[in-house]
């Protein structure tokens, strides 16, 4: 089986052509260029494909990730970003999706105190996503998931990927309920990612296992995909640990692993080859 990694970030602090967006609140302390990523992935024998997630370091400037996808067209695809609250968001998405390697965008309502994800003025962006076959990833707090449910219902032709198991509170099993209800929407996928950081526990993060199993039982392996969240994961997990903690879940079958570690991401992000 060829591994497909669904969630990593890359950036450069060494190349002045790709500087921090002036509105970003994030300043990385390490280099995370494609070569650094490929070196980390060799810990697990390499990945055939990787979905790059636009980091908030660059916000709406997708140049660095798009350039990486053009440089490695047989290894990398991109989930970029547009400002969803800008009046030209739909057109910005159409333009972005014309770039080689772009497969969709990521929206991040999780740190925004305002409610906007399911506002009527967001429909134009989602209609553009359906038109361009752009997958929409959501970095979203578990309490906000009913907004994702509303958009999944209004836009059934858009593939939606929920990051990090919906960011539940691992001390509160009821925090999964909104995500489990989303399993009724066939256009919704879930990333098996983020739990090393979310639990703040030691490897192998067994506190997360009951949560992961509930999501697996609701969505099935064909709508779950593995991701490490490299290099953000590194304070809590090496690349190898982020892989092993998911691969070794005791309730997964071999067929489940084929979907979670390869086929689901290919399907959701339209990866061929």
Total count of domains: 1
CATH superfamily: Metal-dependent hydrolases
Which percent bin holds the helix content?
25-40%
Q: Which shape, going by the Cα principal axes?
A: globular
Overall CATH architecture: Alpha-Beta Barrel
Describe it for me?
This protein is of the alpha/beta class. It has one domain: TIM Barrel, CATH 3.20.20. It has ten helices and eight strands. The protein has helices at 34-41, 63-71, 89-96, 123-132, 145-154, 177-182, 195-199, 209-219, 239-247, 254-268; strands at residues 4-8, 49-53, 76-80, 102-107, 135-138, 160-162, 188-192, 224-226. The protein has an eight-stranded parallel sheet with strand order 1-2-3-4-5-6-7-8. Helix 3 runs parallel beside helix 4 (123-132). The chain is globular, with a radius of gyration of 17 Å.
Give the arrangement of secondary structure elements.
Layout: E1 4-8, H1 34-41, E2 49-53, H2 63-71, E3 76-80, H3 89-96, E4 102-107, H4 123-132, E5 135-138, H5 145-154, E6 160-162, H6 177-182, E7 188-192, H7 195-199, H8 209-219, E8 224-226, H9 239-247, H10 254-268
Parallel strand pairs: 1-2, 2-3, 3-4, 4-5, 5-6, 6-7, 7-8
Summed up:
33% of the residues lie in helices and 13% in strands. The protein is built from 10 helices and 8 strands. Strands 1-2-3-4-5-6-7-8 form an 8-stranded parallel β-sheet.
